[in-house]
Amino acid sequence: MNTPVLSARNVHKHFLAGHGETIQAVNDVSLDVVENEFICIVGPSGCGKSTFLRMAAGLESLSQGEILYRNQPVRAPRREIGMVFQEYSLLPWRTVRDNVSLGPEIAGRSRAERDAVAREYLALVNLGDFASAMPHELSGGMRQRVAIARALANKPDVLLMDEPFGALDAHTRILLQRELLRIREHHKTTIVFVTHGVDEAVYLADRVVVMTPRPGRIRTVLPVDIPRPRDRADPAYARLTAAILDMLDTETAAPATAKEEESCPSQASM
Ligand SMILES: Nc1ncnc2c1ncn2[C@@H]1O[C@H](COP(=O)(O)OP(=O)(O)OP(=O)(O)O)[C@@H](O)[C@H]1O
Ligand SMILES: [Mg+2]
After folding, report:
1. pLDDT tens per residue, range 7-22
2. How far apart are CA 210 and CA 198, in angstroms?
């Protein structure tokens, strides 16, 4: 058995909201992610996916349990763990080029090296002509592609991606899905990828983690045993996609238990 690269053990997270309410966002999540594995997490809106990713990135404390990166507790952000956020997170005062080369700059690389890295990764996301642009001059989807290039430019060992392709048009999305698989093969990156696209999850993942509505628990973990490169026309592909959608439907339709109602008084519809 491979040693996990990332290991979540009985992770809980609650937030104290207004009026002293406790919002339980993540409930007893345990998951081992092994070397070079591609994990996709799907689940209803508000079920704690982003919260889980932020904890794995060392950006959020845990209420209970632990998250280990190669057997060491994750307590703060670290270079080996990259993150692409759900909302665009570029530094508005830096050019596109200088956003992408931020990691190499922090690592003390020369200007020439930084520029070469920026060129390579901007070409990868098809933004080679925008190196000198400022973030506000880009569309939302373009900004997200810069954020992806910036995360990849650090050559992280583990890449946590929170709905990274959500704002992209269908064509770019499919191109970037392919690119991401190629990059992961080349750099042996381990990826945890949150998406609302069940089709996307089945295309990308080695295993799909299906979460329940808040407080998010893992409902099931499904291996995707469809050979790569995957063909969306493969009947096995359609079957698995339908089965996951069905699970999400059932979960969303299920009424909260009395205990959940109590701990989540403000639970919104999914
Ligand atoms: N800083 C915070 N303070 C209080 N509550 C929070 C905080 N961050 C998240 N929450 C709550 O935790 C729950 C889970 O939020 P989270 O953003 O992790 O959901 P999500 O699964 O990523 O949803 P989506 O699919 O819409 O992005 C939500 O009820 C949210 O309101
Ligand atoms: Mg989210």
Report:
1. 999 999 999 988 889 9
2. 10
